[in-house]
Amino acid sequence: MKYFRYVNKSECEFTPNFEAIREHERKLGLDESTNEEILEDSRIMRETIPAETFYEINKIRWQKRRVDLYKSGELGYADKNGQTLFYGLAEREMPTIEEFYNSIDCNGDVIEITKDEFEKMWKKAQVFCEKSNIKINYYEYYNNPMIDDKYDD
Asked: Measuring CA to CA, which residue among 133, 46, 122, 38 is closest to residue 79?
């Protein structure tokens, strides 16, 4: 197993394209949003992007567990059984560090960490969710053979 910490450097500060959003709403047959509603949706979206994410990756580069740390201090986590808060496990293999830095999505830093560092964050997230009464959303149909234990080191 390998362990990584991703530090998001993107502030996700942008001005929404109001007309493009309204055009999309019209195509879907929805009522058009006001500028204030669009700005509020953008603010909420920014708050759901983790500031840092900690990953446990198996030998074929699939996520086994993850911990998300938000700017607000909230913590969420996910494993093969379910997730808390906003994000579950990725549905594709993780890029190598080199692939990540060469990608168009590169807006942060990836650092390899120790198993102990990951386990500390994993436990911290579980305690945070328990104390905050944040429940696990159990997956009903998640059965990804790529995270089978046979691919662990």
From this structure: 122
Arithmetic mean of pLDDT over the chain: 83
For the chain, the first-to-last Cα distance in angstroms comes to: 5
Q: How many domains does the chain have?
A: 1
pLDDT value, residue 141? 55
pTM reported for the whole predicted model: 0.74
| CA-CA-CA-CA dihedral for 91, 92, 97, 98, to nearest 10 | -150
Please give the distance of CA 3 from its chain centroid, rounded to a whole number.
15
In a domain, 45, yes or no: no
Per-residue pLDDT, 15 = 60
Token pair of 88 as six digits: 């579950």
